[in-house]
Amino acid sequence: MRAHECYHCGQWIEEGEAHDCWTTTERALTEDLSEDLQDAWERIRETAVEFGEQRIYASGSCIMFSRKTCYFFVRPKRSYLELCVFLGRTLKASQVRRIYQTSKTKAAHIIQVRHRDEIEAPITDWLREAYDLFDAPAAKVTKPAKAAKAAKAVKNSTRSNRRPRAATPRHKRRK
Predict the structure, then answer these.
(1) What does the alpha-carbon distance between residue 130 and residue 99 come to, in Å, rounded to a whole number?
(2) Per-residue model confidence (pLDDT) at position 168
């Protein structure tokens, strides 16, 4: 490939030079953080490692923590660390900034962390809950009773209880 500018990162790449702007490292993502955010990042990582076996890796602009799938990730920002924790329920807490329903059984909770002291209960409890969520079987999604009755009513209304008419012309039918 001839020399060009990467349309993802804007870096100039010489002809024949290898380039992969999507591959990064934890260190590359956290090296420019302030001292408070560095301490908070270290506390988050230490807490997660204590949970048990998992894979920790950098991907794009995030640091992912996963077992079979990602159970939370950290997105380092200039003035805070953004945690995205996947839980099987929705939380109502002052620490949670936004909630996104990611599937029928999981919701992503966005939490901003600015200092090491914030990495304590209930945030550590939520991280542990997310880690343990993948040990439990997925909850079956059942239709509410009202919706099931409405679906059955629609199905029955499309059926005809009468016998089909004979294919005789109208003028020859008995009245």
Answers:
(1) 14
(2) 61
